[in-house]
Please model this.
Amino acid sequence: MKTISAIVIAKNEEKMIKECLASLSFCNEIIVIDNGSKDATLEIAEKTGARVFDFRTDDFFKLRNYGLEKAHGEWILYVDADERVPLRLKEEIESKILEESSFDAYKIKRKNY
Model:
């Protein structure tokens, strides 16, 4: 099976991060890029077993690229701390990465509330 690295960029997300990371438990690797949290975000992420890196910048793309540099997976899943990967999406992601395909990327539609 191909491997998936989930990357979460976070700053002061102690209320959201635990549930987010739990929804990513199917990934081979979970990486949290912390952008200077002053709350318990780091501690919560570390307790879940995520690989946590402190990287501070105002440039969102630098944060994403830093996470990408740290990732080891063949596939990368970027998730915001306030997002969740429901079971149906998890199953769809797993089925797509198992397929032999010429695709290099997939776009996931989001439901905003």
Summary: The longest strand covers residues 4-10. The radius of gyration is 14 Å. The chain has a mean pLDDT of 93. The longest helix spans residues 87-98.
